[in-house]
Amino acid sequence: MNLDRFRDHPSLFFVDWSLRGVGQVVFQNNPLSGLVILAALAWNSWIYAAICVLGVISSTVTALVLKADRAVMRDGLYGFNGALVGLALVAFTSEDFRTGAIPSVAMVVYLVCAAAFTTMAFASMGAVLAPYKTAPLTMPFVLVGWLFLFAVLKFDAIDAGPMAKPVSPDQFSETVPYVLATWYEGIGTSIGQIFFQDNWISGYLIVIAIALNSRVTAAMALLGAVVGTVVAAVYGGPEGAVRDGLFGYNSALTAMALGGVFLALTWRSLLYAVFGAVISSWLWASVAIFLKPIGMPVLTSTFVLVTWLMLLGQGAFKSLAPAPTDEPTAPEESRAG
Amino acid sequence: MNLDRFRDHPSLFFVDWSLRGVGQVVFQNNPLSGLVILAALAWNSWIYAAICVLGVISSTVTALVLKADRAVMRDGLYGFNGALVGLALVAFTSEDFRTGAIPSVAMVVYLVCAAAFTTMAFASMGAVLAPYKTAPLTMPFVLVGWLFLFAVLKFDAIDAGPMAKPVSPDQFSETVPYVLATWYEGIGTSIGQIFFQDNWISGYLIVIAIALNSRVTAAMALLGAVVGTVVAAVYGGPEGAVRDGLFGYNSALTAMALGGVFLALTWRSLLYAVFGAVISSWLWASVAIFLKPIGMPVLTSTFVLVTWLMLLGQGAFKSLAPAPTDEPTAPEESRAG
Amino acid sequence: MNLDRFRDHPSLFFVDWSLRGVGQVVFQNNPLSGLVILAALAWNSWIYAAICVLGVISSTVTALVLKADRAVMRDGLYGFNGALVGLALVAFTSEDFRTGAIPSVAMVVYLVCAAAFTTMAFASMGAVLAPYKTAPLTMPFVLVGWLFLFAVLKFDAIDAGPMAKPVSPDQFSETVPYVLATWYEGIGTSIGQIFFQDNWISGYLIVIAIALNSRVTAAMALLGAVVGTVVAAVYGGPEGAVRDGLFGYNSALTAMALGGVFLALTWRSLLYAVFGAVISSWLWASVAIFLKPIGMPVLTSTFVLVTWLMLLGQGAFKSLAPAPTDEPTAPEESRAG
Description:
Chain A has 337 residues and is mainly alpha-helical. Chain A has two domains: 1-164, Ammonium transporter AmtB like domains (Ammonium transporter fold, Orthogonal Bundle); 166-337, Ammonium transporter fold, CATH 1.10.3430.10. The first copy, chain A, has 14 helices and no strands. Chain A has helices at 13-24, 31-44, 46-65, 70-74, 80-91, 105-129, 139-152, 180-193, 200-211, 215-234, 239-243, 249-261, 267-291, 301-311. In chain A, helix 2 packs antiparallel against helix 3 (46-65), helix 8 packs across helix 9 (200-211) and helix 9 runs antiparallel to helix 10. Chain A is globular and about 55 Å long. Chain A starts with 12 loop residues before the first helix and ends in a 26-residue tail after the last helix. Chain B binds chain C through residues 65-69, 72, 106, 110, 113, 116-117, 120-128, 131, 147-151, 153-158, 293-294, and chain C through 131-132, 169-170, 174, 234-237, 275, 278-279, 282-283, 285-287, 289-290, 293, 305, 308-320. Chains A, B, C: InterPro entries: Ammonium/urea_transptr (IPR029020), Urea_transporter (IPR004937). Chains A, B, C: GO terms for molecular function: urea transmembrane transporter activity. Chains A, B, C: One of its GO terms (cellular component) is plasma membrane. Chains A, B, C: Pfam families: UT.
């Protein structure tokens, strides 16, 4: 099947670009991956699947209206931050985090503007980071997400309940023992939490979506989730947070980014990626505790921080090499070790 | 009248540069605008007018002593952050925010050093932002202002009362209805708050000061204030905060910056500026709520953040073009749409 | 004595590089300075001396494994942030801040990873700052230290007591009068606090260690400590915080950095350095009050912030000139005024 056949289609190109946008949340420039991810979201809650589509469309349309660079839009890179900011705004203002709630009209306007704003933030961060051969990653989403989540709590027109979702490890009981389900649910939900899905089956479906485009990246996602979960267990993280995937979702993203997507995959970069996953898991706890007093979730800030600090200076380390292509698709082609 | 006749005068040049410094708070490289702004401040409180002069002199003298680039000094660009930091330190340590209080000697030394420090911060931020064709805006003021406001509360020698001024929307009653004065006072005070003036007449006088140099920028200032106020009203912002101009001052600055000062004014950039004004208004509420626990005011941080995120990546969007001249004076000459 | 004879020695080079790493905390690319500093730490507590060695080894080995640039490693520049992060993690998790406590195995693993992570952070910040001819200073330590200190409080496996050390001026009594010991202890401890040593004799030993390599920098360290202490006294800082060296350690570092290390030493840059020391002292109080609600110490954040803001824009000021050599060793050779 030729996956690129709609990419420059006169009318369907937009569907193709938007699906790639969904896929780019996990670095997959592939419309089929995006489609399977939407299915994984719908498995958990059709509301989230619909919001994800709304977010990706808002930010991609904004890029079109502003006449952004076509090559960047074609890769779905203007879409993924919009998708995430939409999901986050609904997730953290819904009474039930797991299923989400249908947003009000005022909230939809707000959400669409937030998603559109990520397009500008993405271009700005991209311009600043370009000389250092480093990508904005999900920082536009994290920054815009935080800023828009705060304001939401103070506008009458938006009916935000108290944030129902625990956002920090110290909000979980410390006496619950680890069981088998802690492990297989925790690892799956770690992947699910990347898209705010409290559902381990959705998580494993997303792994399949990644594997459709790159088996190596799918393996790195699982490895990162395992590392994050094991680190939490060894250092005594509460069972509820582990099973909820909270210690693992940043680790999974960091492992993918460093293990093949932005660095050529070798034994050294594999160890580098595992190290990054360990740090990401510790720092999730750190940032969560820092943000708890103001009631903000960590989002993917730990992943971005760790990955930036491990990529910006890559030129100083001769044992690392950038992945050979600008287009982060299939690390299979870049394995050198 | 030749407005530039004192600009290189052997002894009066410093008066000219300082007045331009006052004007540059609202992007006006024009000594007459600066003079009218000082009159607008004096209309509200002669103390603020005097502090504004002290601040602009401190930072401009520092630039002279350090032998800064003459062209930059001549445009008043080393002065405006010093003026603002002086006003902020007095405003937030006075028992009566509206009139301000005459500062103690220890406070004057402190304030002069803070204003001098903005000169170094301006040069540093300017150097970092130069490759991206983006200006430091009022970030030196925001950063130095926050840092110096915190310390002030803990030094015995500086007699700081409790911060009397509400700094966040949730400090206002939510049950007061909107009346006609909410609108005309709120819009005027939005402009006044740029200079910490709780006075709507001073605000409209500042609009006149801007119009003396650029009618387009004056119109954008009003448009931004209107947008910020309307957005707050639609989303249920409390009447007291709206009438106080708090939802509007960042919007007014963002609208000016994007609507003619840094981007060539076209229909597209006009919409871009209105979008920025909407976001600035929402994010004022957001940052205010974030900062309230530590008792800090938002200052113009929202304007800087939104404008940076909408300007740094301007090169990626073909539908935007930079204003044709480096010297942000009269957008009339750059209208292309 | 040829101080460089072990620098390229086939087996002892690592000892040389590590000792330089210790010296680089106070800008001394000199193994003998590093050795005397370790002795100064051991005078106060052998635990801190051992932890300092562990930290510097962890980050330097990481640089070797990643094949970092040899010239940078030879100067000890990959070591000093690791040394500091190790000291900070032990200091702020020990029941007795003054002596420190022997860390658990889980803590040692954590600490070694944190020190290793500073190596990556140093390379990344170095890459970002390189175009502006500005060094990362101790920012890798500050950032990694903050992030790792937070998480530590929530992991069962790491037995962190309540942070025993006061971290903010308002935690000290305001009624204790200044005595003679306030001064000579406060100035000495200001230098000691750079390495978390609550010991004024250790502080003066560190001054000797600096003087072994550069008498000018040793003098600037003392001058900075004096300025920080005097400023605190004039503005009514509590005696306990002054005697503890808390108002002075950032000032001492700023004075060294601006007075000879990064700027050529002239009368103008001497005044510039004194101004920076004044600001650093004020802002220590400011950042301490900002961080107190979340229980975090200031570390050397004020020094980094002030020095960056006074160095990044140096090119804009004709009255300043960079120190003539890249290698910050002996400012004696660069005095121009």
